[in-house]
Design goal:
Elements lengths: L8 H14 L7 H20 L7 H11 L8 H4 L2 H8 L7 H11 L3 H4 L8
Helix pairs in contact: 1-2
């Protein structure tokens, strides 16, 4: 096992190629251990060089609605009325604290994510 830090794009590419070769190694073998270590190093490199921003609150709600196969009507009890749901999802109105509490429970989203600021559409 010859593992070295991933510092450059070339190192990253080589690490991905090596991981592809040993990915399905039998657990407990040196190749399996190497794959585990390479996976961690690749993950760290990607976090640093290819960060993915968290979605804003409205995008997070829409993503979760899609995952849970919910329609706007399904959020009426959490937000308060069909028109209110539409205003929130179309960025015409901000979420209130009560809405955030309700959506946290209904959609299993973090309150920290839902309290983030976002722009309204005028």
């Amino acid at each position: 096992m010859d593992i070295k830090p991933i510092r450059t794009a070339s190192d990253y590419k080589s690490s991905l190629e090596r991981l592809a070769l040993i990915f399905d190694s039998e657990i407990g073998t040196p190749e399996s251990d190497e794959a585990d270590i390479l996976g961690l190093m690749i993950d760290e490199y990607e976090k640093k060089h290819y960060p993915i921003d968290a979605p804003d609150p409205i995008e997070a709600i829409k993503i979760r609605m899609e995952e849970m196969q919910l329609k706007q009507l399904d959020l009426v009890d959490a937000i308060g009325g069909k028109s209110r749901v539409s205003e929130i999802l179309n960025r015409k109105r901000k979420l209130t604290l009560d809405m955030i509490r309700n959506l946290t429970l209904k959609l299993n989203l973090s309150a920290q994510l839902l309290i983030e600021d976002y722009k309204l559409v005028r």
